[in-house]
Request: fold
Amino acid sequence: MGTTEDNRRAWEIANRKYVLESDTFVKVADDGTLLPLEVDTIAPLLRPGSVVLHLQSGNGTEDPALSRLAGSTVVGVDFSAEAATSAQHRVRILESSVSYVVADALRVPLAQECVDLVYTGKGALMWLPDLPTWASEVVRVLRPGGWFFLYEAHPSASLWTHDTDDVRVRSDLSYFGGTRPNDSFPASAIKRFDPDSRSQAIEWQWTMADVVMALLDAGLQLVQLGEHPEPFWRPADAGTVAAWAGTVPNSFSLLATKAG
Reply:
């Protein structure tokens, strides 16, 4: 139905947003977009000089804050050259110890056992066609005793409608696997920046079991798993949404380690 290259082309168009609005995102990145839960979990794991890999780093607004935790060095990997270039411009202005590499998350161009923490999420997993390969790459680049942290949209979150009066489930989607055309972002940005484009991004639906078992099968040890009512992202025009009122899961966090 779709391929990684299709998605890459779609994101190259959509990521023009972060180039055109670069000044705004310099301030966003300087302020930092790490959530308190993320800081509280990650900070104790790092020591001065730690190396952090931000896998599927996108526009990289978490990265300056990640680099400030224990004086860490951050490497962002993303398949969009547009995203990586604009993110590199921002961290250069902020003088952050961050660098970016354009690459597929399934083929990370880093040496074996070279990072202390892999950080990812906030809309990352839905763009991966192969979770076992992804998980194997995470384990490959982690040093023994290293950490993996994920903060991501809950697998059920895409099923909630944006109704204001009650929580309802979309009848056109399934929790159990498959792919679907993206109908939020980058779709809205493609329409804005290249309305004549035929580019369309395709999302993969993964269950919680898919994610957890891929990581365990790759060799990680689960330390912590949490489910949270808050969505990791709220579209600007969404308004009040009943599914975000605290009664259903919208995000989850996962901490795992590689045996030393």
